[in-house]
């Protein structure tokens, strides 16, 4: 995977971030952020193609993969999307990029849209894959949401209930979590899957992911609420892509929701489930090329 890319660990202000990049002079920078329960390896089918037109940077989010797992506090502050976004901005600054494009899937998309709110001078364009804003998801939650996205409530339970239960058989939990949709997860490549499972088996990773979800249900909601109350909207052009056979298509008018949060929104569903970059890599890459080159 990632032929021609450099793998390094970057100090993002005291938080070490596993980073893979391919940088070429004169090409615009594009940051790729993964989701739960994966690592930056989820971009392995997309990043090489994008590297022909962009300086591509793919990282493990704070707490995930081989990135550091900072000690937490009662407010889950290190795992607030505000803090996680700040870590990613530091990575890009370390690589020499003050302004850049960013695309995120799942949890990475939540980091990306928070980055667009908090650092509008950095984010030129933004792509979010298979999410609506955290505030919208919780405020609109009903029985169908709770039954399907049960992990949003399970993983937010106080330490160390979810950590103990997931840690009893991490591989079982990982496979069950990624197989909730009416499709098999056979699109995960063996090499990427090995990285996902190796990292997920770590008790420190499991704890950090639970902290990510605890932050979402508390401090992240407060940050989203503050932006809503102040009438702030994302200024950067925003591309939303989602899976037509996943949950978002059934539950939400995705573009209408994002148009409440951002000034310039476009996007569409792809014929797949939740894991767009691995199920439909060519379509995702083409959509990114069109959007970020525009």
Q: What structural class is derived from the secondary structure elements?
A: alpha/beta
- Main sheet characteristics: 8 strands, mixed
Strand order in space, largest sheet: 1-2-4-3-5-6-7-8
Strand content: 15-25%
Report the uncertain regions: none
Distance between the termini: 28 Å
- How many independent structural domains? 1
The Cα radius of gyration reads 17 Å
State the CATH architecture. Answer: 3-Layer(aba) Sandwich
Assign the CATH topology: Rossmann fold
Q: For the record, what CATH class applies?
A: Alpha Beta
Along the chain, the helix and strand elements come as EEEHEHEHEHHHHHHHEHHEHH
Q: What is the oligomer described by this structure?
A: single chain
Number of strands: 8
Helix tally equals: 14
């Amino acid at each position: 995977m990632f032929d021609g890319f450099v793998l390094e660990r970057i100090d993002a202000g005291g938080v070490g971030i596993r980073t893979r990049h391919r940088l070429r002079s004169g090409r615009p920078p594009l940051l790729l952020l993964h989701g739960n329960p994966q690592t930056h390896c989820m971009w392995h089918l997309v990043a090489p193609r994008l590297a022909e037109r962009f300086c591509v940077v793919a990282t493990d989010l704070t707490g995930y993969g081989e990135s550091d797992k900072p000690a937490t506090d009662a407010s889950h502050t290190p795992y607030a999307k505000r803090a996680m976004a700040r870590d990613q901005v530091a990575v890009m600054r370390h690589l020499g990029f003050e302004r850049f494009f960013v695309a995120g899937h799942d949890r990475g998309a939540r980091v990306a849209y928070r980055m667009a709110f908090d650092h509008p001078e950095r984010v030129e364009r933004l792509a979010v894959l298979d999410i609506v804003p955290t505030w919208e998801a919780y405020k609109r939650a009903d029985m169908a949401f709770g039954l399907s996205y049960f992990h949003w409530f399970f993983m937010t339970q106080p330490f160390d209930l979810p950590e103990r239960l997931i840690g009893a058989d991490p591989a079982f939990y990982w496979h069950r979590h990624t197989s909730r949709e009416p499709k098999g997860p056979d699109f995960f490549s063996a090499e990427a899957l090995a990285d996902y499972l190796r990292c997920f088996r770590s008790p420190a990773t499991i704890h950090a992911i639970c902290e990510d979800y605890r932050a979402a249900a508390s401090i992240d909601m407060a940050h989203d609420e503050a932006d809503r109350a102040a009438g702030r909207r994302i200024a950067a052009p925003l591309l939303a892509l989602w899976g037509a056979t996943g949950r978002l298509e059934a539950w939400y008018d995705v573009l209408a929701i994002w148009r409440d949060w951002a000034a310039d929104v476009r996007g569409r569903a792809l014929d797949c489930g939740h894991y767009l970059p691995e199920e439909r890599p060519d379509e995702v890459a083409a959509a990114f090329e069109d959007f970020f080159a525009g």
